[in-house]
Amino acid sequence: MITRFATLSVPMPYALPVAHGLLQRDLAFVEANGCVAEISPLPGLHQESLAEALDDLAAGTLRTPSARFADSVLRAQLQCDVWTQRDSKRTLPAMNSLVVDEDAKLDEHSVIKVKIGREPSRDLPRLLSILERSPDCRLRLDGNRLLSLDQVLEVVSCLPQDRIEYVEEPLVDPARLPELAKVVPVALDESLHDPAASRHEDEAGAWVHVMKPTRLGSLEELGDEITCARNLQRDVVLTSCFESPWTLGVLCRVAQEYGLSRAQGLGTSNLYQDWPRINMASSLQDVELPELDWQPWI
Would you say 79 and 224 are in contact if contact means Cβ atoms under 8 Å apart? Predict the structure, then answer.
């Protein structure tokens, strides 16, 4: 049972590439039995609103993925699951950075995720520029089902193949992903969150499963998906829906608990530039956030 909750809005440093450009992130923290979890469905991606998810969790109906995820995080803390415990030897997993526009500053991450498909004519020059500015990086190209097979093949054919880690669900027609997988490694994302979509289980090629835990639902549902991927001998990458640094820390711990070896898609804490400077006493006066024993999350 929820005993306390608080909501807040955090301005983003640029418009996020969802919901026609999201300028602020609205989220809530809930407390139950001394345990805390975040609820923050992403407009344009989750079907439920923040208010609907809060009501769902409070009522215990757990029909929405956001509420199921928060409920499972609360239960994990109450049960003292291993990943919830403090560990001074714990380190951050490897992560990819995210590049949305061509003026973005590149950081030290060796794997860079780049959004493509919004302005196809500019994609190749942008990618070549990134490779030049970051000569040791590998690219993850995320097309969000915006491109044709021919468009994607044209881009990847002009890039050094050893610099492409994978191409993530770029096709308007996902049924043609097996054709793309004959040329370049392919990552499934949207297909994993659509019960009717094919996982292309019997297709050749290298495949990766990119999972958004707060969209899948509970940590138990996430565990089932990881097991399915491993049964198919496919690697798993966890990624966020631009949740807060607190939940990014949770997901980093979960990734380590499952021994996920690839760079995880959790390097978005820089979007919360005001996060460490938020006055917790005034902004979150009804909730005391539990500390995570690493930086930069809190």
Answer: no
Low-confidence ranges of the chain (pLDDT < 50): 279-288, 290-298
How many domains, in total, are found in the chain? 2
Q: Is residue 116 part of a domain?
A: yes
Give the SS3 label for residue 297: coil
pLDDT tens, position by position, 59-96 = 999 999 999 999 999 999 999 998 988 777 878 888 89
* 235 falls within a domain: yes
* Cα(184)–Cα(206) distance, integer angstroms: 8
Residue-number span of the structural domain to which 112 is assigned: 96-271
Q: Is the dihedral of CA 253, 254, 257, 263 positive or negative?
A: negative
Q: Do the beta carbons of residue 236 and residue 260 sit within 8 Å? A: yes
Non-local (6+) Cβ contacts of 172 within 8 A are 145, 146, 147, 148
Nearest CA to 291 among 38, 134, 115, 84? Answer: 84
Ramachandran area for residue 259 (φ above 0: left; ψ -120 to 50: alpha; else beta): left
What pLDDT shows up at residue 104? Answer: 56
CA-CA distance, 226 to 220, in Å (whole number)?
A: 10
